[in-house]
Amino acid sequence: MQRIESNGALLALIWRDDDWRDGLTFPTPDELFVQVGLWQYPAGKKLRPHKHKFNQRTVTRTQEGTYVKRGRMQVTIYGEDGIKVADFILAAGDFAVMAGGGHGYEILEDGTQILEFKNGPFIDVATDKEDLLPRP
């Protein structure tokens, strides 16, 4: 797992396809807006049926994660001040959680498929997003 930080603030966590380990791990810090669990079990492993209880949680910001199913994309990470901090490429099997600051994406291959997950619901662009670069 790779961490991208700026001025002591966590901006992104990146997991490569070969970062997976046997068993169940929760690599995200407890204070993050979302918890990511990685499962890797042998055939025949049974997970007990369950449901999740209702628990109220306070959410103050929408952030997201992306998983690349197929293809590749470039991710650009920005600090809270809007200044570019890092670029990296996610390929098939990789995923990242954008934990703070800002981010931008560029699809690098035709047919790229991305799964995005975020705390929601997404309200609308004006309420949930702040552009970091001028629109063309």
Considering the chains and any ligands shown, give keywords for the structure.
136 residues; mainly beta; Jelly Rolls; 5-stranded antiparallel β-sheet; 3-stranded antiparallel β-sheet; 10 strands; 3% helix; 41% strand; globular
Describe this structure in words.
With 136 residues, the chain is mostly beta strands. The protein has one domain: Jelly Rolls. Helices cover 3% and strands 41% of the residues. The strands form three sheets. A five-stranded antiparallel β-sheet has the order 1-2-8-5-10, with no helix packed on it. Strands 7-6-9 form a three-stranded antiparallel β-sheet, with no helix packed on it. A hairpin with a 2-residue loop joins β1 and β2. The longest helix has 4 residues. The N and C termini lie far apart (35 Å).
CATH topology: Jelly Rolls
The tally of strands reads: 10
What general form does the structure show? globular
Overall pLDDT, averaged?
A: 91
Q: What is the tally of helical segments? A: 1
Low-confidence stretches: none
- Computed CA radius of gyration, to the nearest angstrom: 16 Å
Label the CATH architecture: Sandwich
Estimated structural class: mainly beta
Strand order of the largest sheet: 1-2-8-5-10
How many independent structural domains? Answer: 1
- The percent range for strand residues is 35-45%
User: In this structure, how is the largest beta sheet organized?
Assistant: 5 strands, antiparallel
State the share of residues found in helices, binned by percent: under 10%
**Helix-strand sequence:** EEEEEEEEEEH
Straight-line N-to-C gap: 35 Å
Which CATH first-tier class would you pick? Mainly Beta
